[in-house]
Amino acid sequence: MAEQEQGHHDVDRFLEDQIDTVPHLEALLLLWNSRPKEWSIEEMAKALYLAPEAAKEILDDLVRRRLISAIMGNTESFRYDPETDKDLLMAAVDSTYRRELIRVTRLIHSKASASVRAFARAFRIKKDRE
Amino acid sequence: MNVEMIEGFLLGVIAASSLTAGVFFLKFWRKTRDSFFLAFAASFLIEGLNRCGILLLQKPNEGSPWVYLVRLLSFLLILGAILKKNYGEK
Amino acid sequence: MGWIVYILGALVSSCCGLLLLRSYAHVKKRLLLWSGLCFVGLAISNLLIFVDLVIFPRINLYPLRLVATAASMLLLLYGLIWESEQ
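Predict the joint structure of the above. Result:
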């Protein structure tokens, strides 16, 4: 029971720290579930029902947070790179999102905008949690 | 164009924008529950009110103690917020 | 004696401005740009108060100080209104 709570806590902490919007989460989970398939911006945009510019912004955000990788080629493409620790967390996030859609989306929506959170984060001189 | 009017106008702009910025930071505090934003809100609101208070002074340009003590408070609030964010509770 | 406060103010404001602009270079959130510029402007304005009161007491820099402060605050307001929802 305690272990389950700890897992819950880790997922929530991840959502709090790393996920700006629901489309961000869906993009990440799409790449996770199809790993190691590489997706182009247009393919992602279509799969997520977003405009390509919006998809590019989301993918760039995820790359910057080192959650996914960008591959340079003729066109830029993106994929999830497996990594043991990250994989465990991603599996937990994925199953939590499937089981508790409403709670997760509520949690994400209740956050302040990414800009406001970035403002507060800018003043962290000690980079322990960047 | 009257210099005093321009100075008064600019003081008004500064007061109104400081108060507005303060209210924005209050909103961020309410959303995030992060006291960091409360400190910024207090800092800007105090400075906005300080600018209004300047209207009561005879010589606004001079370094009147009241003005700079309040300004000091507003800086200390921001400094405190930054220090707390970095060295406060883990 | 008050001028020490304004030097402190200039230091605190430039610190804020630098932190925000440095973060903007990494994260590209425009709120950080506008607020960073505001704090840089406020640092300049505080420095001008020191210059006005201590270094050139005979010259009146008050209107210039006010312009610097007002411009900085307007930059911050612009950023807060346009970018704080993003």
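Residues 2-18 of chain A form the longest helix (17 residues).
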